[in-house]
Automatic annotation (TrEMBL):
Its main location: membrane. PANTHER family: INNER MEMBRANE PROTEIN YCCF. It is a multi-pass membrane protein. It comes from the Bacteria. The keyword Metal-binding does not apply. It holds the Pfam family YccF. It is found in: Cell inner membrane. Residues 7-57, 79-129 form the Inner membrane component domain. Keywords: Cell inner membrane, Cell membrane, Membrane, Transmembrane, Transmembrane helix. InterPro entries: Inner_membrane_protein, UCP028777, YccF. This is Inner membrane protein YccF. The keyword Cell inner membrane applies. Signal peptide: none annotated.
Length: 136
């Protein structure tokens, strides 16, 4: 990990990443209450880790990454994303957008606001996505 990426991730963690990462993990715990929600919960924990340390990571559609559809990238994934959006997605997106607005106030906060917007978009439809590390 480059020094600048590490520095940005530390500042991110202190200025809102910790809170949003916990929000993702809380959503994951709530999903694990029912057996049907376990795939949603797993996705929450993976994306929650990205919410803690977003610099150097990005979300990619699994269909584009692997070249074929799976359960989460097909029609079941679409249904899952609609259910996700109604119960958790909208609230996580609002949280990320509120943090993004707070970060856009200063010039130094713009890279952090951009990460919050990326996570807000991901929080709307996380089923079928995977997190990959960007090359240095």
């Amino acid at each position: 990990m480059s020094l600048l990426r590490l520095l940005f991730n530390i500042v991110w963690f202190v200025l809102g990443g910790f809170v949003m990462g916990l929000a993702w993990w809380l959503a994951g715990l709530l999903c694990f209450i029912s057996i049907v929600g376990i795939p949603f919960g797993r996705a929450c924990f993976v994306i929650g880790e990205m919410a803690f340390w977003p610099f150097g990571q990005e979300s990619v559609n699994r269909k584009h990454l692997t070249g074929h559809e799976d359960l989460g990238t097909g029609s079941f994934g679409l249904i899952g994303n609609v259910i996700w959006f109604l119960f958790f997605g909208i609230w996580l997106a609002i949280g990320h957008l509120a943090h993004a607005l707070a970060c856009f106030i200063t010039i130094i906060g713009i890279p952090f606001a951009i990460q919050h917007i990326k996570l807000a978009l991901l929080s709307l439809t996380p089923i079928g996505q995977t997190i990959v590390t960007k090359p240095v």
